[in-house]
Amino acid sequence: EAQVTQNPRYLITVTGKKLTVTCSQNMNHEYMSWYRQDPGLGLRQIYYSMNVEVTDKGDVPEGYKVSRKEKRNFPLILESPSPNQTSLYFCASSLSRASSYNEQFFGPGTRLTVL
Amino acid sequence: AQSVSQHNHHVILSEAASLELGCNYSYGGTVNLFWYVQYPGQHLQLLLKYFSGDPLVKGIKGFEAEFIKSKFSFNLRKPSVQWSDTAEYFCAVNTGAAGNKLTFGGGTRVLVKP
After folding, report:
1. pLDDT at B80
2. Interface touch B102/A90, C-beta < 8 Å
3. Are residues A102 and A3 in contact, defined by beta-carbon separation less than 8 angstroms?
4. Is A100 within 8 Å of chain B by CB?
């Protein structure tokens, strides 16, 4: 089944404790992206990756890091989480932007609480 | 930078009522337009999309949307809602720039009362 998976689905942590949220897709998509969802603000892009070893900042990158060492995986790293990073996080993937069909497929979400 | 506005934050309806959710975007060039739905506790699913051609787009579950270029709008409609349509609905725009980024509206929570 074609899908985007994220782990963990729920995480409660404390300020300053480094964490990683994993994202994996099995559709051979070049493009992957991370969004955070906050009430009334919709989804905002954190980072994106056009392909392996190619990443760039989205609209709200502060406090986050990403890496893209393999095509299927795009982990989100919070080196020193703070309470304002409490949010619902979604990973998404799609074919290359060069394609005229650029629907993005979303993972199930990771609800993060930073105390 | 482009932006997307959804006019209603919360909508409460009774079953069989008609639904219309407004969406306006600010971008002067060519856009791809999407409506996503998020059922309680689930991830986003694509309802429908507009890339080009007929401005009246039909999606899944009886939803449709109309692209009105002169008004920069892409409103979502459903003639008769069901309790199972209770969800949050997001309008999104892609301009092909900035790495295939989707710019989302703030979302509209729809509650359908049985």
Report:
1. 97
2. no
3. no
4. yes
